[in-house]
Records
---
Amino acid sequence: MDSELARVLGSVVANATPLVIASLGETITERVGVINLSLDGSLQLAAMVAFVAAYASGNAMLGLAAGLIAGLLVALLILFSNIALRQDQVAVGFVLTLLAADLAQFLGQNYTRIPGPTFPTIPIPLLRDIPFLGTVFFNHNALVYFSFILLFTTWFVMYRTRWGLALRAVGERPAAAFARGTNVTRTRYLYTAIGGALVGVAGASYSLAIKAGWANPAVMRGDGWIALAIVIFGGWHPLRVAFGAYLFTGLRALASTIQQTTEFPLVLVNAVPWVLMILTLLLVSSGLVDRLMLLSPPWAQRLLRNFLRSAPPVALGTQFTRE
Amino acid sequence: MTRSSLLGQRALALGIGLASIAVSLLLTALIILAVGASPLEVFNKVTEGIGLTPTGLDIVRFSGVVNFWIPLMFVCTGLLVTFTAGLWNIGVEGQMMFGAVCATWVAQEVFLPTVIQVPLEMLAAALGGAFWAALTGLLKTRGGVHEIFGGVAMNNLANIFSIYLISGPWGNQGGQATPPFRPETLLLPISSEFRVSAAALIVMVVAFGGIFLALSGTRWGLELKAQGHSQRSALLLGVPVERNVLLAMALCGFMAGLAGSVRVLFTYGNLRPLVSGGIGFLGLLVVLLTGTRALWAPPIAFFFAAILGGSTRLKIALQLDQSLAGVVQGILVLMVILANGVRGRLHGRHPVQAPEASASLEAEEAAIHG
């Protein structure tokens, strides 16, 4: 029983990887004040580019790099058109959502349903042998381990370093950050690039690990939107965002298990993620979280306040101009 | 501003506009080359698909373009309302699909003379679309869920619901679509050559005209514009923002539902998965290009419908994925947006996204108050 549960949890951890990486990437981007709305298309484009590059070179690492660059370029295009050309981030992001998805389908049409290189499972010596936890956490491919490292690095950099302080300041009060000597434009470019690159890695992790190959973009279609919602659910806090991604994947796994054991119409199970998405957004924005926090003892409130914040970065989606 | 500098600016704007189109064409050509096809051949097949042949216009194929144009114009008409109100009604696809489901229900369950039956189907679709959109509006106004996320979720739910109906209660053996509707429930073509529904065309023209007048000539239109520019100041001016959000969403959903009814009652003659065919998203692209200049919507929508209609031949003729239509449309919109930015930079440091924002808002405020 123990090992069966461990196996299920292990597969949830593996399947959540793209969602964890993508929503962490988007968290970084949004914390610096930029909305990358193109996620749903970016993921598909990066997945396709990664697969084609890996297939052509026979090297999964090169595929990963190509996917990373695809995600990075899309994100930078949004920010460039916002900073240099003063266009709306949401409008450009929306166009790129559609464009990237169609590009993935058109350019990838000759590469569907063929096998290509994938990331192999690398059990971690010693840790792998820990009962239960070994199966859940330490018997995966490199991208899964990367998502673990990324999660704690993001949290550490964001809350424990000067860089993180500058990052958050630019997303909250760009004018104040500028007055304190932070180069707002450069900071936004840097973290938007990092966030976009992570979205690219997330896309690559679909086609090089989760669902090896470039069969049909429908496999991941919608996940970009779910990642965007998870960022809101997670209150723009890396640990909570990652928790949301795992929770979501777990509930999805649960839904498909229910589907196998009951008479419930099969297709309607697909509705579960979307109903959950609406319910979680309702929960977060209705202030219920804040009210729950008030019920806890004062010492816990202080501790929880930072963790449970649910307000978006103040300067999200806005443009910073010096004059 | 002197006349010569004004002329210079116009020439510059024209030059940048043409350049953005040229760059779009070039990029598209490169993308076509990347999959090993010939851009020229693709161009020929697309123009053939529209009905443009060396011997003249192939009216049957041309009517195919018009049949994309009509539902697209319904969607654009609705989206002009939400765009004016500053709302991102990304849920328009789902509103089309839910409208189509409602029209299907009436077509299958109600038995009346055609003159009553068909209008009833269209009305059911419109009300269904309005209902679906109002839910997104309520989520926004009462639940604090941004309309982009509410809309995306409602799109997926509408799609899943229609697939459930098709594969379950309403399905036939294949499970790919509902059985064909009875002939007396369908919109009829003008002729066997020009296969366009006159009724749908007339309703569309009336709807577009009505919305255009409402947006440009009524107090309500001004209110929407005011809240589109700044919800906060609109609220301060006494504009019932929440009511207008719901009304704008419902109106847009109403139009999207009509578009959905045209898809099931004319294009297909039954209900199938993703019956909207991406027309809702295409409408968003068109409205992004037109901004609030509503009169540009019909020609731009027609051009986009032509690309969509023309590309349907790519799969058969050249084994190329039809997604090329989306690629061309996406690149074009992106380039025009970027070109707007370039023009803004060359003209001076004012944002170009909201052209009448600062200058006319005061006038509008005065008008609303007066």
---
Amino acid sequence: MKQRTGLFDIVNVLILALFACTMLFPFIHMAAVSLSSAEFVVGNRISIWPKGINFDAFAAVLSDKRILTGYKNTLIYVVLGTTLSLIVTTMGAYSLSRRNLVFGKTFMLMIVFTILFSGGMIPTYLTVRNYHLLDTIWAMVIPNLVTAFNLIIMRTFFQGIPRELEESGKIDGLSDAGILTRIVLPLSKPVLLTVMLFYAVQIWGNFFSALLYLRNADLYPLQVIIRNIVMMGVISDITVSSALGDKKVVLESLKYAVILVGTLPILLFYPFIQKHFIKGAMMGSVKG
Amino acid sequence: MKLSILGQIKRDRIFLLLLAPTMIFYIMFRYVPMFGITISFMDYNLFKGIAGSPWVGLKYYRMFFENPDARIIIKNTVLLGFYKLLFGFPAPIVLALMLNEVRSMIFKRFVQTVSYMPYFLSIVVVASMIDMFLSPSTGWLNHALQDMGFPAINFLQEPGWFRTIFVSSEIWQQVGWGSIIYLAAVTTIDPQLYEAARMDGAGRLKQIWHVTLPGLATTVAIMFLMQVGQILEISFEKVFLLSNAATYDTSDIISTYVYRIGLLQGNFSYGAAIDLFMGVIGFVLVYVSNRISRRFSETSLW
């Protein structure tokens, strides 16, 4: 086959390159402003290249008590929530993957129905309130313990494991629990990792539960702190250096630094976890 | 040999035990709230609870439909969903088609990798970025506008801009991720079809039109039906974070209204009534579109 590079290819690559810039520009711009010194930010002439590089904005943000508390809280929610969710989802999905489970169809139907219909914001809030979960760390973990989507991904995967493997385990004298821990789970590492990441990202970014169920500022996750600082302009706690002129402009660097600090973990891990997410997205899209 | 129900329960007891936490969760946190909807037919009092509050029938439903706000928030919800579908649905398909034509694997990888990135940002971070970028005094977009000789625009305070901002930022965040499924579908197209098309003298555009697109047709149809079903499902968080009293004419949707009037102001019954109204319409939409997508192919939401 001849491979000629024609006008079509040139136009295509140019448009895609422009598209890639659109995707990247916001990140680069934020980094550039947050790394620039105040006098250049004042002139508003920073686009993609930092001028007068310094880390003052990041130093200020990372010494802010609320940010640190928010980080700590978010980490607790992510670790606790992901662990619990993954365990419960795996147990549930494994049971539901058994074709002849008694009432299995009914249980599955009950779960799928919740994708279609829910009580809505107010009845859910009142329920969580009745369980006395408001203003506890559990409010960020329990109300979203199992996601139907993740459960279905896992169930589909378990159903794909050949029955013969389980039967041979049985012949070798393994109990049902033994088959799960010795045969099924080791084979399921990819799906376990994928669902784990889905849960972790979901809890990391969960703002809704915090908005509804948390009033105590000591429990606020990072997302609430970011919102308060960047969008509501609650900045009193951060040491704003006004030495270099216009306070407002230094604030701009600070706000971008706050956003970046709240995104950095995901951006850093992103290259390593990307392929697992894509696997999960494909598994999730072809459901039985 | 067929076991009795009791026998089956005994046989499956370990699996039922493993399943128990999941089902308890669903009952406690998904089904109990569904029964909580009954408060929309009561004058619910937080301190008297469901048992102590008096029944008022359809009072709150009537109140909603007689409220002039109702028309605005229903219209805003439907329009936001509609515009998101109109512009957001074709975007990943176009991206996948273009990526599929790239010959340099390195460049293709690079574009794909950066296109997924925004998907992993939290909604608060995306809303914060929009807030900063669109700021009339310090945002880069307004600087760029001013450099080109246009006046600065206070984007987030003007109702006329809300839908554009919402939909375009949704596309920015979702387009790469959405293209994954189409790229996967493209790989299942038989390469011989391209060969044959080339023999018939089809150029690149004609190959896309006559081979790639027909090959994607089923996937496109299913995805479209699924998204039609979810047209009312608009991210509460994002609208909540980006809207403000100045833009309520276009930015107030059913869920933000329920939050504000129902939860913040404590009109629980009224809020629950609006919730149920939206829940029922959403249910019908998803159910019907899923039924249709099932007839198109084996694939469906469940």
